[in-house]
Amino acid sequence: MNTSLDLAKQWLNQQSEFKGTNLVPFAAGTANTLYQLEGHDLLLRLHNQQLSMTDDCAREYATFAESAQLGLAPKLVHLDEHHRFSIIERFGRSASVLPIEAAETLLRFHQQVTESLAPRFGGATFDYPSLLLDPDRQRKAKIWQQRMLQSRLRPCWCHYDLGPGNWLVQAKSSGLTLRLIDFEYSNWGHPWWDLACLLCEWPMNEADAIVSRYLQLNQLTMTDREQQARGAAVSLYLAVSLQWCDGALAQAKSKTQQQLLQTRRRHYQKLWTGNGLDH
After folding, report:
1. Residues 119-158: tens digit of each pLDDT
2. Could you tell me the maximum CA-CA distance found in the chain, to the nearest angstrom?
3. Distance between the two ends of the chain, CA-based, in angstroms?
4. How much is the pTM?
5. Distance between CA 65 and CA 116 in Å, rounded?
6. Measured between alpha carbons, how far is 90 from 76 in angstroms, rounded to an integer?
7. Are 104 and 72 in contact (CB under 8 A)?
8. Could you report the per-residue pLDDT of 83-101, keeping only the tens digit for each?
9. Which ranges in the chain belong to alpha helices (H)?
10. Using an 8 Å Cβ cutoff, are 72 and 199 in contact?
11. Count of beta carbons in the 10 Å neighbourhood of residue 78
């Protein structure tokens, strides 16, 4: 059975400009691996089919293409129609520290991509509790979603996966420039979901500063209402992430993949317990 890497190599060798191109490891995450195309300012992104949570390539392609046009993502050169790999423009490096400029980038994504894609993908409908299988957590999730919706932030087109590996950063004389990648899960949602992702996936001091700046850009402060929305969004995010890890672990075949997923699950469980969500 051909792997995603084998299929990507076959496609590259069928293209005259890429035939015989060497692939150099660039970065790796839980569900995706990046390779540099030697001699080209391009990256090959392999999608782990076993850990994929979507088959809506049209939505992913539309989000990536629109984000690239708006200067929020690198140029998308090719997206495999079966969601096995993609070729994207190389931009800077994978961010190891998330700078405060991420707040402006995320706000632009929420505002401008929403404006562009809303006519194509209908109204802002989402139901986070329906993502959960456990009846007790689903019941709690309905309460969390209600609290989140009390926020003054309005639903928008969300990225859904803003953890390390999906932010690229480039230093220029004018300052730092950021780009987003990996729009596999992008869809309608609530801004607090993306903010909760930052709070759960990045060091708290970095994420807190970005969340505060994001609210400030929206002319908001961390009122009791927003604090409750924040707590509810983090609870939803952790519940869904723990379930995702359990499902992915059941499918993961390699020991390396299992170890990565176990590490992620321990991280989410620690946050879950630390937020008093075991009761």
Report:
1. 888 877 899 999 999 999 999 999 999 999 999 999 999 9
2. 59
3. 45
4. 0.90
5. 11
6. 10
7. no
8. 788 899 999 888 999 999 9
9. 4-14, 57-69, 102-108, 114-121, 135-148, 191-201, 204-217, 224-251, 255-274
10. no
11. 16
